[in-house]
Amino acid sequence: MSKKHTLYQHGTLALLVPGLLDGTITMKELLEHGDTGIGTGEGLDGELIILDGVPYQVDHNGNINVVDDDFTLPFANSHFAEYKRLTDIEELSQAELDKNIGAMTSANTFYSIKVHGTFTNIKTRAVKKSHKPYATLGKTAEDQSIFLRESVEGTLLSYYSPQIFDGVAVGGFHHHFLSDAHDFGGHVLGFGGATGRVEIQQFDTLEQHLPIHNKDFMNYDFSDWDILGEIHNAE
């Protein structure tokens, strides 16, 4: 089976909801499963975007850092890039982009899109690292910084998950961004217009990795949580 068709995911969004924010995989381990990806650090320490095998962290202060091999993450996606051109776009909002891509592919499988071009009125966020005892995802995410650029060139890296996997990942699109100048990025909250080239990579296999050596995760009872409601509020 070709690894080009496999999406690797460590952790689930569901485990973040009650505050299971320990880093349970190292960046070195994650990069063994892909040269492209997104994630967050221990304690929701910023927003990660991996491009061409280089892991960039957008921290709470808006700095772009290349993280070390021993940087740990509670949740991440990665894959080996083999994108194919899908279409060119001009001045599409985030909602329009999501809708257009959705009309050109299936909603029933995982895929990644990569858009390189110019983005206007783009808003991103990065969360400040928290420490044990961790608060819930919703509470921790309140301590976030919002960044805005009127116009910036860069790369939008996104993963699409089918709705039936909502809770494992984000049902629908999960967008991260990094500017070409490496001075702006984060989890995308929206943009007014995107102009550039859209590439896509479809997956037929989801490799789901769980942190079985983390006692907090293994012993936690999720039954009292509205997991999907909490995820949608935080995202």
TrEMBL record:
Write down the species.
Companilactobacillus futsaii
Q: What InterPro entries does its record include?
A: Acetolactate_a_deCO2ase (IPR005128)
Q: Could you tell me one molecular function GO term of this UniProt entry?
A: acetolactate decarboxylase activity
What NCBIfam families would the database entry show? Answer: acetolac_decarb (TIGR01252)
Pathway assignment: Polyol metabolism; (R,R)-butane-2,3-diol biosynthesis; (R,R)-butane-2,3-diol from pyruvate: step 2/3
Chemical reaction(s) catalysed: (2S)-2-acetolactate + H(+) = (R)-acetoin + CO2
Might you give the EC number(s) for this enzyme? 4.1.1.5
- Would the keyword Plastid turn up in this protein's UniProt record? no
What protein family is recorded?
Answer: Belongs to the alpha-acetolactate decarboxylase family.
What gene, per UniProt, encodes this protein?
budA
- Name of the featured protein: Alpha-acetolactate decarboxylase
